[in-house]
Amino acid sequence: MELPRPTDDIDRAEHDLDVHGLCALTGVLDGPALERVRSELYAAAAAALAAADDAPAFGLDVDRSNQRVWNVLGRAEVFVGLAEHPAALRLLRSVLGWPMLLGNLSANITGPGGAAGVLHADQIFVPEPWPARPQGANAAWAVDDFTAANGGTQFVPGSHLRNRTPRPDDPAELTDAVPLEVPAGPLVVFDSRVWRRAGPTTNADGRRAGIF
Fold first, then answer.
1. How many CB atoms lie within 10 A of CB 183?
2. How many whole angstroms separate alpha carbon 104 and alpha carbon 32?
3. Phi and psi at residue 134, in whole multiples of 5°?
4. Radius of gyration of the chain from its Cα atoms, rounded to whole angstroms
5. Is 107 in contact with 38 (CB distance < 8 Å)?
6. What CA–CA distance (Å, rounded) separates 156 from 168?
7. 42-65 b/e with 16+ CB inside 10 Å = b?
8. Per-residue pLDDT for the chain (212 aa), expressed as one digit of tens each?
9. b/e string for 93-119 if b means 16 or more Cβ within 10 A?
């Protein structure tokens, strides 16, 4: 299986989101804007770590190599612009319609030596059997380069069409997750039913941040 290729065409991105359950839209966040987001995020991460370095591990992580930064929206004005970005809202609207609610704005920073996370669908907040239509979607910003070596998020393309969470007895061919590999900057939007996990970090010095 292959993930849809990044595109600068928002109509193509909307098509990919419908067919594959995710899309990557380029040309949205770059240059000084990207550098400001990165700087503010890593400053927030350092402050969060200093304030709560003994916080319990997140349930979908299998070790402490990932740092979760919660409540990003209130940490700097620049993050409000990501939540209200017209491209993000258009793509989310194509999945959810309007009105919609902002349920969360957080970040995940992978660290060296991390294992793969738990394969899951974000729609775990809805009891199964799920309704025919998705009940959520995620707009994610690649703050750093996402690669297979630095824990780039892994997706199972098309898994949103199964309309359920992954199960322990699913055959391997159903759970074959593909790493998202993009340079810093793209907006990645995905259906809350698509199966995904944080990838393993196999390089010794790499880390990457994403805002979800």
1. 13
2. 25
3. -65, 145
4. 16
5. no
6. 15
7. bebbeebeeeeeeeeebebbbeeb
8. 799 999 999 999 999 999 999 999 999 998 999 999 999 999 999 998 888 654 555 666 657 678 889 999 999 999 999 999 999 999 999 999 999 999 999 999 988 888 888 999 999 999 999 999 999 999 999 999 999 999 899 999 999 999 999 999 999 999 999 999 999 999 999 999 999 998 888 887 767 999 99
9. ebbbeeeeeeeebebbbbbeebebbeb
**108, 57 in Cβ contact below 8 A?**
no
How far apart, in whole angstroms, are the C-alpha atoms of residue 121 and residue 123? 5
Q: What span, in angstroms and rounded, lies between the C-alpha atoms of 14 and 176?
A: 23
What CA–CA distance (Å, rounded) separates 67 from 51? Answer: 13
Residue 109 CA to residue 101 CA, distance in Å, equals 25
Order the strands of the 154-156 sheet from edge to edge.
120-121, 195-197, 154-156, 178-179
Q: Residue 38 corresponds to which tokens in the numbers above?
A: 């990165």
